[in-house]
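Sorry to interrupt, but I need a hand with the structure work. Could you write out one complete protein record for me, on any chain you like? Could you add the entry underneath, on a fresh line?
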Amino acid sequence: MCPATAYDAKGLLKAAVRDGNPVLIFEHKLLYGSKGARAETGTVDASSDIPDGDYIVPIGKALSAARETM
């Protein structure tokens, strides 16, 4: 798994812990310790809202932001 947002990271991590199968999670190192948008080139914005409540993001249901070209 490779979460794209902070919301996805929390939800996928919770889903992985509850799953009975081995799961690998890949995180971008520039997200570590970040709070809000960063100014460095190539950084990822981790400032999305994260709910306090319990939720999961289902494993295997990918979010695709790319446009399909035919």
Q: What stands out?
A: The mean pLDDT is 74. The radius of gyration is 14 Å. Helices lie at 6-18.
